[in-house]
Design a protein that fits this description.
The protein is of the alpha+beta class. Helix content is 33%, strand content 14%. The protein contains eight helices and six strands. It has a six-stranded mixed β-sheet with strand order 1-2-6-3-5-4. A hairpin with a 5-residue loop joins strand 1 and strand 2. Helix 1 crosses helix 7 and helix 3 packs parallel to helix 8. 30% of the residues are buried. The model has no long low-confidence stretch (mean pLDDT 91).
Length: 272
């Protein structure tokens, strides 16, 4: 028998959000803790105000390359050994960069948190950015750019930003850089970006999971003892439109199997 009656909703359940603690450690790091004891796991996310908008003019892609380079070894471990050390603790070390920030993250059993956090702190306080690995990461990004240029959707996204924003706006360039800018990057550029932007007052650490706020404070304070102090280099962010009139741009790609359409305009300015 077929019925069209809608099933009744079950009883509601109360939910209590964790009691967040938001504080600033003595070295300037902002620490946000959210104790959730449902599972014996803890996630540590590190956010640094060092995103693509911090890229120097003509060096677009530096933030992304620096974030990727964090996985390639420290003064104590090369990249393979560093990954192995995290695996021995039952976790992996993830990094990346978006427009506004660089992120680094681990998720680990609460019983292994102190060891994993110490390794995380060492990894992001003592990166060595090996020349060979930086060149490999550059080559991978250049290959991605070549592939992107054959894919209408990604090409439309990047061209839309280019046509929308003023030429001197960072937003007019791809967040991970274009072939010209990425090809020009060097290990020295990566090191300079790291030294200028990876600072304690530009860092927020979020700890969520099976741990108390007091224990999280003790673990992070110990793990990040070597984190460079101070504030990041301030950037003048330009988000002006390329034009104040309506425009239609056509990217002619005869071999494309489909067409993509983008419509939009620059929105309200952001406030920090």
């Amino acid at each position: 028998m077929v019925t069209s009656l809608r099933p009744k909703a079950g009883p509601t359940h109360d939910y209590r959000f964790p009691q967040f603690r938001d504080e600033v450690l003595p070295n300037g790091i902002r620490l946000i803790t959210a104790p959730v004891a449902k599972l014996p796991l803890v996630t540590v996310s590190v956010l640094i105000d060092a995103g693509s908008t911090n890229d120097p003019m003509g060096k677009e892609g530096t933030a992304a390359l620096t974030a990727a380079g964090m996985l390639e070894g420290t003064s104590d471990y090369d990249g393979a050994k560093l990954a192995e050390e995290f695996e021995q603790l039952g976790t992996s070390f993830e990094t990346g960069a978006d427009w506004d920030s660089t992120y680094l993250k681990i998720t680990v059993l609460s019983s292994r948190l102190r060891e994993a956090a110490k390794l995380l702190g060492d990894a992001i306080s003592q990166p060595v950015f090996p020349e060979r690995e930086i060149e490999r990461l550059k080559a991978e990004r250049l290959a991605e750019i070549l592939q992107l240029e054959t894919e209408p959707r990604g090409l439309a996204d990047e061209k839309f930003s280019e046509f929308l924003y003023a030429d001197n706006s960072r937003y007019s360039k791809p967040d991970e850089g274009n072939a010209e800018s990425v090809g020009s990057l060097t290990r020295a550029d990566v090191e300079e970006f790291y030294r200028s932007n990876y600072k304690s007052k530009a860092t927020t650490v979020i700890v969520a999971g099976d741990i108390s706020s007091d224990d999280a404070r003790a673990v992070i304070t110990d793990a990040f003892r070597a984190w460079p102090s101070g504030a990041a280099r301030e950037q003048r962010l330009v988000a002006a439109a390329r034009t104040d009139t309506k425009r239609v741009h056509i990217v002619n790609k005869p071999d494309a199997p489909q067409s993509e359409l983008r419509v939009g305009h620059v929105g309200l300015p952001r406030r920090h």
